[in-house]
């Protein structure tokens, strides 16, 4: 069975600071990996995805993520956080089943 | 707007009543998914359609839940004899084969 762990429930960073959100997955083969962002009361917006190829993927809004097979990780990064980035971030994996398995999310708070 | 559309956005119902939600996917997407999200958690997979065929159902989908996609276009999710534990955000997503899923804004169900 596939699973996703997001170890950080809540993270607070100052505006302009760098950000890294952690994601670890469990799946026997190479999965498809995703990061989604959700604002309060809204659906999920795709930030970026990894299917194959280059392990460093670029997404929207200045986000990037790196797939590390040896660590079963797909951490999300942003060099300089903006106040509008405050939201809930979900890592997801698509493995043997066609549907996504999500982590429990990381809530990002941005301090002025 | 050519995104995934869900209706209604909010539904308040009394315990024991039946409710039905509708999802209109992106028109060229043949895959459609339903997820449920409770407060503070990531979305959990409920069911998946490829065209009109329901190919997978989660154990979360009790016999009070039924989903249809009669012509391979829109889908409905019905909950019979609602319980307070059914209160959640119900998310619909659609995708093409081997591509990322796009989510709707969700239907928030409150059972009182």
Attribute tags:
heterodimer, A: 112 residues, mainly beta, B: 112 residues, 7-stranded mixed beta sheet, 4-stranded antiparallel beta sheet
Structure description:
The complex is a heterodimer of chains A (112) and B (112). By secondary structure, chain A is an all-beta fold. Chain A has no helices and 12 strands. In chain A, strands 2, 5, 6, 10, 11 and 12 form a 6-stranded mixed sheet that branches. In chain A, strands 3-9-8-7 form a 4-stranded antiparallel sheet, with no helix packed on it. In chain A, strand 8 and strand 9 form a beta hairpin. Chain A is globular and about 40 Å long. The N and C termini of chain A lie far apart (41 Å). Chain B has 112 residues and is mostly beta strands. In chain B, strands 2, 4, 5, 6, 9, 10 and 11 form a 7-stranded mixed sheet that branches. Chain B has a 4-stranded antiparallel sheet with strand order 1-3-8-7, with no helix packed on it. In chain B, a hairpin with a 6-residue loop joins strand 4 and strand 5. The interface between A and B is medium-sized, with 22 and 26 residues.
Structural category of chain B = mainly beta
Number of strands of chain B: 11
Largest sheet of chain A: 6 strands, mixed
Proportion of residues in β-strands of chain B: over 45%
Structure annotation, total helices of chain A: 0
Overall geometry of chain B comes to globular
Number of strands of chain A: 12
Uncertain segments of chain B are: none
Secondary structure class of chain A reads mainly beta
Biggest interface, chains and residue tallies: A-B, 22 and 26 residues
Distance between the termini of chain B: 33 Å
- Tally of separate helices of chain B: 0
Strand content of chain A: over 45%
Q: Residue ranges of chain A: pLDDT <50 for 5 or more in a row?
A: none
Query: Which sheet architecture does the biggest sheet of chain B show?
Result: 7 strands, mixed
> What global shape of chain A is seen?
globular
Topology:
The complex is a heterodimer of chains A (112) and B (112).
Chain A: E1 3-5, E2 10-14, E3 19-21, E4 24-26, E5 32-38, E6 44-50, E7 56-58, E8 64-68, E9 73-78, E10 87-94, E11 101-102, E12 106-111
Parallel strand pairs in A: 2-12
Antiparallel strand pairs in A: 1-4, 3-9, 5-6, 5-10, 7-8, 8-9, 10-11, 10-12
Chain B: E1 5-7, E2 10-13, E3 19-24, E4 31-37, E5 44-50, E6 53-57, E7 65-68, E8 75-79, E9 88-95, E10 102-103, E11 107-111
Parallel strand pairs in B: 2-11
Antiparallel strand pairs in B: 1-3, 3-8, 4-5, 4-9, 5-6, 7-8, 9-10, 9-11
């Amino acid at each position: 069975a596939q699973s996703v762990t997001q170890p950080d429930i809540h993270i607070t960073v100052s505006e302009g600071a760098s950000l890294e959100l952690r994601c670890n997955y469990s799946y026997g083969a190479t999965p498809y990996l995703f990061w989604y962002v959700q604002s309060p009361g809204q659906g999920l917006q795709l930030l970026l995805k990894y299917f194959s190829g280059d392990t460093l993927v670029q997404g929207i809004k200045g986000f990037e993520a790196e797939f590390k097979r040896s660590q079963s990780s797909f951490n999300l990064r942003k060099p300089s956080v903006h106040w509008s980035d405050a939201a809930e971030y979900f890592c997801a994996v698509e493995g043997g089943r066609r549907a996504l398995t999500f982590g429990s999310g990381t809530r990002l708070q941005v301090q002025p | 707007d050519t995104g995934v559309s869900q209706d209604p956005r909010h539904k308040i119902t009394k315990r024991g009543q039946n409710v039905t939600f509708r999802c209109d996917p992106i028109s060229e997407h043949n895959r459609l998914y339903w997820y449920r999200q409770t407060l503070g958690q990531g979305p959990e997979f409920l069911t998946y359609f490829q065209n009109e065929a329901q190919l997978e159902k989660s154990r979360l989908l009790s016999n009070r839940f039924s989903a249809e996609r009669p012509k391979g276009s829109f889908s409905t999710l019905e909950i019979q004899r609602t319980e307070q534990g059914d209160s959640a955000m119900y998310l619909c997503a659609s995708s093409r084969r081997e591509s990322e899923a796009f989510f709707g804004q969700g239907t928030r169900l409150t059972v009182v």
